[in-house]
Specification:
- By secondary structure, this protein is mainly α.
- It has 3 helices and no strands.
- Helix 1 runs antiparallel to helix 2.
- The longest helix is centred in the middle third of the chain and has 22 residues.
């Protein structure tokens, strides 16, 4: 899950940046980041919570 989450986040950010550069919509990424940066922390926390941890790997060994 952790690898997929990072890949999806990079694709989404890249897609938004490309669409903004191509003029498909007018968006200020800096303003969005300044406003919504706590949501990024929440999403990262949920992704880390749901990802399998090293504790489970130790139990199997």
């Amino acid at each position: 899950m952790r690898g997929n989450f990072g890949a999806i986040a990079l694709i989404a950010v890249g897609g938004l940046a490309l669409a903004g550069n191509l003029g498909l919509f007018d968006v200020d990424l800096g303003h969005l980041l300044r406003t919504w940066w706590p949501l990024l922390l929440i999403i990262l926390g949920v992704g880390m919570f749901l990802a399998p941890g090293t504790e489970q790997q130790r139990k199997r060994d």
